[in-house]
């Protein structure tokens, strides 16, 4: 675990900008990582450099050729990150925009007729895309109900609704409201058993910063992430599409390469900053595994991150030192129960007698950054069945510390006591 390696946590935190202070509000603990993780200092440097370059990648000059090398290296790093031997990796406007494109391409490219299937746990990035393109293609959408008590959706829940008529399926890897991870590989395998030709698209946006991604093991056709939630910057998304999905007709320039997903000239800085993220994970993984294989080191980083965050989550829910956790505080209700196993980076809750917005403000005044989730188009499918109008979402990452958790719990104990 990161915290068990002497000096490593200090090294990790030193690589991130604004790790313990906001440039506008001063010192604070950052527990709003699901809204956007801290950015690597190297990403800021890389972004500034590329923002100053006027040349396009691929031009017959030194700058154009070097930029093309950076783009090619970025794509290689994206493949490594996804563990994708085949298919295509590409950059778009955002993770949400890419999920819309993946779903649209699947809906238009799949065999006519049939149905589309997702779950009520999903973010509107996939749920809205599915509803729109099901309507356009004349298909019904099956929404598999998630379990309100656990804040997750299981393989058997999907299996109960599967038929050979499924043409397109979506799976949320991890909920940004409950924090609970879905068994994507298990769900995908169940879909393949019943509807082997179905095209399967995964929303990996919440999961990507909390453990390794392995599309080869998952057996899916599309996977999208938002780099600003995984230590890079805003302004782009990254996706992978299988050869089968890539072969479907899609928006592209007439006469251009049929396997091309990207439209127009992309920012070489996006590829470069994604390479910065992969290089960071490579470095971190190298502290736990000295393999010469970069993918092995990335997987080691994923395991170390997961173990560290599990320890923080146990402290948040179960307590640390003489401080009770949220699971033992009077008046606190946890969204998705008090399970630590399967939870990735998020603990959402309510405190009796407090409006969530007021509690977020109280915590802000005490130097702790969290966020309100409302029963709106983003989170309503999870919160409304629980009878909640809103909740407080606390989201951690591997650069957070148990001391920061203890500070949060001490503020909460004073309110709940």
UniProtKB/TrEMBL annotation:
<dbReference type="Pfam" id="PF00266">
    <property type="entry name" value="Aminotran_5"/>
</dbReference>
<dbReference type="InterPro" id="IPR015421">
    <property type="entry name" value="PyrdxlP-dep_Trfase_major"/>
</dbReference>
<dbReference type="InterPro" id="IPR015424">
    <property type="entry name" value="PyrdxlP-dep_Trfase"/>
</dbReference>
<keyword id="KW-0456">Lyase</keyword>
<protein>
    <submittedName>
        <fullName>Selenocysteine lyase/cysteine desulfurase</fullName>
    </submittedName>
</protein>
<dbReference type="InterPro" id="IPR000192">
    <property type="entry name" value="Aminotrans_V_dom"/>
</dbReference>
<feature type="domain" description="Aminotransferase class V">
    <location>
        <begin position="29"/>
        <end position="256"/>
    </location>
</feature>
<dbReference type="InterPro" id="IPR015422">
    <property type="entry name" value="PyrdxlP-dep_Trfase_small"/>
</dbReference>
<keyword id="KW-0663">Pyridoxal phosphate</keyword>
<feature type="domain" description="Aminotransferase class V">
    <location>
        <begin position="304"/>
        <end position="408"/>
    </location>
</feature>
<dbReference type="GO" id="GO:0016829">
    <property type="term" value="F:lyase activity"/>
</dbReference>
């Amino acid at each position: 675990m990161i915290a068990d390696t002497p000096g490593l946590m200090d090294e990790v935190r030193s690589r991130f900008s604004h790790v313990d202070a906001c440039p506008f509000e001063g010192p604070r603990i950052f527990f709003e990582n699901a809204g956007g993780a801290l950015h690597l200092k190297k990403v800021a440097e890389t972004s500034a450099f590329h923002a100053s370059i006027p040349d396009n990648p691929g031009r017959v000059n030194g700058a154009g050729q070097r930029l093309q090398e950076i783009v090619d290296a970025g794509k290689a790093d994206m493949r490594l990150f996804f563990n994708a031997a085949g298919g295509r990796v590409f950059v778009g406007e955002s993770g949400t925009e890419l999920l819309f494109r993946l779903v649209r391409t699947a809906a238009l490219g799949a065999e006519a007729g049939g149905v589309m299937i997702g779950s009520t746990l999903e973010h509107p990035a996939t749920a809205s895309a599915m509803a729109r393109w099901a309507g356009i293609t004349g298909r019904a959408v099956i929404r598999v109900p998630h379990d309100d008590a656990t804040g997750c959706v299981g393989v058997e829940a999907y299996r109960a609704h599967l038929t050979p008529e499924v043409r397109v399926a979506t799976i949320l890897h991890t909920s940004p409201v409950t924090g609970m991870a879905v068994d994507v590989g298990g769900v995908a395998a169940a879909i393949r058993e019943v509807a082997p030709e179905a095209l399967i698209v995964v929303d990996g946006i919440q999961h990507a910063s909390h453990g390794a991604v392995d599309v080869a093991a998952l057996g899916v056709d599309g996977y999208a992430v938002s780099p600003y939630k995984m230590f890079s910057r805003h302004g782009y998304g990254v996706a992978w599409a299988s050869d089968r999905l890539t072969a479907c007709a899609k928006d592209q320039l007439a006469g251009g390469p049929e396997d091309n997903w990207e439209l127009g000239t992309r920012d070489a800085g996006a590829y470069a900053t994604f390479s910065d993220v992969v290089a960071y994970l490579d470095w971190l993984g190298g502290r736990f595994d000295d393999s010469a294989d970069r993918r092995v080191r990335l997987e080691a980083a994923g395991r170390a991150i997961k173990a560290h965050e599990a320890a923080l989550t146990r402290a948040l829910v179960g307590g640390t030192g003489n401080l009770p956790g949220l699971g033992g505080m009077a008046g606190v209700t946890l969204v998705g129960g008090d399970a630590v196993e399967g939870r990735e980076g998020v603990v959402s809750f309510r405190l009796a007698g407090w409006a969530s917005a007021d509690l977020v403000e109280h915590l802000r005044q005490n130097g702790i950054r969290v966020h309100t989730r409302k029963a709106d188009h983003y989170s309503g499918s999870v919160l409304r069945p629980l009878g909640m109008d809103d909740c407080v979402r606390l989201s951690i990452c591997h650069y957070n510390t148990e001391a920061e958790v203890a500070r949060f719990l001490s503020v909460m104990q004073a309110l709940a006591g």
